[in-house]
Amino acid sequence: MLRRAACLCLAMVLTTGWLAAAQEERGRAKSQAPDETTQEQDAEQLAARIAALVRELDADEFQTREKAQQALLEIGTPALEAVRAAAKSPSAEVRFRARDILEKLESQASGIQLVESHQRPELAFVTSAECSSDGRFVYAAAWQPGTVSIFARDPKTGRLQRTQSFAGANMQGAVSIRLSPDERLAAAPAFRSNAVVLFERSERSGRIQQLDIAQDGQNDVAGLTWPIELAWSPDSKFLYVAAARAETDGGIAAFRVDDGKLKFVELNTGRDACFKDARGLVVHPGGKTIYVASSNADTLVVLGRDGESGKTEVRQVLKDGENGVSAIAGACSVALDREGKHLYVSSGRFKGDDAISAFAIAEDGSVELLQEIVNGKDGLRDFQGGNEILVSRDGKQVFAVGTRSRTLARFDRDPTTGKLSSPLTMKVGTNFVELGAAGLGTSPDGRFLYLALEGDGAIGVYNLAEAAATAPAAGSDR
User: Which of 20, 37, 42, 281 is the most core-located residue (most Cβ within 10 A)?
Assistant: First the structure.
């Protein structure tokens, strides 16, 4: 009997101990994983605090406004939506502070940090920025003074130092400068002069000197009116120019580059005014295809190219509102990935959709729509005036500038499918100008982005926190 009682007592002690341990473990788990009610309460409290801080941006006391602004910056991403709404407030004070907060928060979220803004009189209304393949120089064109400026570049910091500015009688309206693939030459279209200027380039110093000028109405050149962009053939032997107002409906002028001279080949005016206000063009790395975006025609045109003669022919015309394509109204700029498998179009600089469109490229060079991302939809916001666009060196991101919204848009890119995701926009330049960035370029190592800040008259140097890896080699022969 005593033995049985002892066993019962021991069992009770063990059971009681086990129950106590189990209860203690449940309590510990509960304390480590707050229930949904607690999380909801925390979210409500944070939202209420953010709303209160936004109201304090308009407080009578300066110190209260300053503290509220700093507190919203410290809260970070959770405050973005409220700050975006505050940026449209009827109160000028609230708008000013909210926009400042928004610029900093979006910069933090994007992983892109401003290094410097290089401002000079020679850069008034600068619209392009291109980095040499060795990473030593940056080239920029500014249309108001009609200048091309060259900057020596520090590969480690990305910072710039001007080494040359070139201005000539036929450079009025110089809107871009593009280096030839072998980088021995460069060329600039000048829309006010109706001319294209050819330069010789020194690999050692980066400096340029004029070799030749092709001007509308001279030396058999016809239709070179309002030249706005150009692109080189992969072998550096031909130059293609988007003449936005050629014969009023636009066209693509072709030149052979021979012994430092520009020899006119032809003007292709297309069909059904498909090149009206031609703005963007790019030559496929295979050399057999050219892609053209035309703002007033609302088109993306695919041109076949003869490598020997340099002549072109229209093979495909995609027009906004037809065959499922609905976001290339105001098409302004085109870009290819380095393998030539996908094409991207930015629209809206002067009118149109404020959108980015992605296309797959077939073996014959024709394109098929993959995706359309329109401002206000698909996660893209605050992107107006879609202008120059480029694919990062490693192919993992796409960047585009919104000139009217003064923003830079960044997208993640799937290198296999070519599709874009996770759009994010950030303010670039200042809030006191009407126009934002118009052009952009990237360093060879993918660590720095160079923005042509048109309204500011400056080149903005931006550090990409998530630096791109070595770019893949160019691919197929299209």
Answer: 281
Q: Are strands 342-347 and 208-215 parallel, antiparallel or unpaired?
A: unpaired
Determine the Cα–Cα distance for residues 68 and 87; give it in Å rounded to an integer: 15
pLDDT in tens, 95-142: 889 888 877 776 666 678 899 999 999 999 999 999 999 999 999 999
Which two structure tokens, joined as six digits, stand for 342?
Answer: 């996908």
Cβ pair 444, 134 in contact under 8 A = yes
- What ranges do the domains of the chain cover? 38-110, 112-464
What's the pLDDT tens digit per position in 274-328?
A: 999 999 999 999 999 999 999 999 999 999 999 999 999 999 999 999 999 999 9
The Cα–Cα gap between 274 and 269 comes to 8
Distance CA 283, CA 176 (A): 16
**Euclidean distance between CA atoms 231 and 202, whole angstroms:** 20
**Cα(252)–Cα(256) distance, rounded to whole angstroms?**
13
Closest CA to 292 of 278, 311, 304, 307: 278
- What superfamily in CATH does domain 112-464 come from? YVTN repeat-like/Quinoprotein amine dehydrogenase (2.130.10.10)
Q: What is the 3-state secondary structure (H, E, C) of 378-411?
A: CCCCCCCCEEEEEECCCCCEEEEEECCCCEEEEE
